[in-house]
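Pasting two entries for a bug report.
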Amino acid sequence: MQRPEQPVLDERLLAPAQRRRPRRRAKPITAEEREQPYTDDPRLLELERKAAESVPDQLPLFAPGPAGTLTPLLGGLPPLEPDSSLELARAWYRRELEQARRPQNTIESYCYDLVKLQERTGPKPINRITRSDIADFLGRANTRTTRKRRLTSVRRFFRYLIEDARVLTDDPTEGFYPHAIQLRSPVPLFAEEQERLLRAAAEDEPWSLPAIWLMMRLGLSRGELLALRRDHIDLEDPERPVVYVFYEDVTKRGKERKLAADAEFAAIYREYLEVASPVDRLFPYGFQAVNGMVERVRRAAGITKEVTPSTLRHTFAVERAKDGADEEQLLALLGLADDPRNRASVRRYIKLAEPPL
């Protein structure tokens, strides 16, 4: 049913009070008028001036952070500077650890050691703490374990001041190392044993062959293997697929890397996807399942020596050393930090790769 049309009113028939009046445009305010005082009374202006001076300054809510970002200030504390106190730097560092969601016992342990450092250094600013202060702090540790923990705490603290807060450039902890821990000599698999292991893995469960291939041919650790997702494998070039190793833990981002595989892996991987069809994680298993699978494949291959996921990683490193990889390249391939212990570790592979005497 259609509504009846409304009659059009002729405003000329309306009373003068009912007629619509044309709107007047507001007169714009000029910049000069906007800057004029609120009143012409000098007494009122003086009162307003005094009231404005009595208002306390507002503390800044943000301070410049890493890479030009703005970082919220912690409880109104001033921004971190090179000559800031150790107490202030410790408060900023604690906030950084809490935002990174580090375990509470780790945070308390680090901050406790920094309190002990402050007891030794006194009121020195952070840019005046020297290697002598660090040596005194470490030398007063009662045990090797305590000394190692203290060194870890202060080293990560100064790394934060240099790399994240960017208020320091020199690291007073440089040159101090934990007590040496003897490293066992790795026992890699020989070429014939590697082939037998791959053949046996192909006859095992569908995930066994790609998992062992990634550990033995690309050097992935057990944790890195289990963290792999489908979108971490790039098959755009079927002759040279790429495997990306990522870490959810922000403290381990330095271990991330991009590794080149080959056509053999591309074929193994495609066959695995057809059989298993993983949705997200490539290998939805636990650490013990990986250990059990490697042991099961070892027995099926008839290999008598001990074979673990670490053995496969050692084998990869030795093979790369045989191909000419040096210390820096091995550190990068294995995702290891450049420190004395890891350098000693990769030297073992280089020594095993040397020609026989």
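Entry 2 (this is the one that rendered wrong in the viewer):
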Amino acid sequence: MKDLFDKIYADKGPLGKWADKAEGYFVFPKLEGPISNRMKFQGKDVITWSINDYLGLANHPEVRKVDAEAGAKYGSAYPMGARMMSGHTDMHEQLQNELAAFVQKEAAYLLNFGYQGMVSTIDALVSKDDIIVYDVDAHACIIDGVRLHAGKRFTYRHNDMESIEKNLMRATKLAEKTGGGILLISEGVFGMRGEQGKLKEIVALKEKFNFRLFVDDAHGFGTLGKTGAGAGEEQGVQDKIDVYFATFAKSMASTGAFIAADQEIIDYLKYNLRSQMFAKSLQMQLVEGALKRLDMLRTMPELKAKLWENVNALQSGLKSRGFDIGTTQSCVTPVYLKGSIPEAMALVKDLRENHGIFCSIVVYPVIPKGLILLRLIPTASHTLQDVEETLQAFSAIREKLETGVYKRLTAAMAAEMGE
């Protein structure tokens, strides 16, 4: 019999094998200073394009004031206990009611964390006789929730309507045998590519198939739609989404999340969500802070307008310079380049050290080998000057990549890592 840890000693995993060279710089980096468009990285000022603070609320003076006052009033512990036992308050209910109204649903329920809440919601919605159909590019929280499912699940090709319909047909045949139902899961905005889920087209399939639609709208909430209610509002099908999910970790610049649906569905979920039934309630400081942030989303449309001014400037600037930004339909701005992992490391180091640009880097195994994805997140805090400096920097690093400068710099590393 093997020691349980033998596999850990032998194989650190596709990302872990880079730890000695990458940790502290390429992964687990430490940004310092107030959350803003410009922060410090290893003592240098950088323009930050890796913070999901879409509306610039993280360091907004009104938000900071409410957070501080709520902290002084309640501390960081109150209320103690799970909501079913001792952690329920009028303020939790108020926030739920206001969130439900904002996303145009009958009711909502607070979640302590987005990732945890998504996993638990999927688990509560389906039984072993039910079938899940979901996008192959779904976020890890969806994939982990699906893993808990004791029944059958089918993945469809990303945003591919033919594949969705084919898998709904398979799911329908199986559900007729098991006596179960079908849950289709999509994202409102896919956080890596920036594409919106094809919610309008998926909803139209309800005329042919009997399924319920669950949408993770983490990146759409607050950024898309006339009022900011998300991808469903943007596509005119918000009322056809059966269960809507969003996190506070993006547009709300905080901690927590919520689900929204018809009252009867929420009543069921709040008595069956294990991650909420057996976990401490969302602390009051975060609840009061979320109420303030939600009020700003409703009453300060200029925040979203400034966000989209920056998004449009960045994305149009990249496209006019010939960069491939895929088919993004959101604030998420991917830039696709061709190169090895060592080249990607050299490129990102050049961006940070010589151009003062900090953005996220994504390589294999998250995306196919030979591709480099630089992911930029514009916010309302950015300026057009930030955009111009970034466009110039990207033009410079692309030239070095295409002329082999980074390849020559990293030849030894590439050989060592088998690239």
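Dev reply: Rendering is fixed now. As a check, the viewer should reflect this: The chain has two domains: 6-54+301-417, 61-299.
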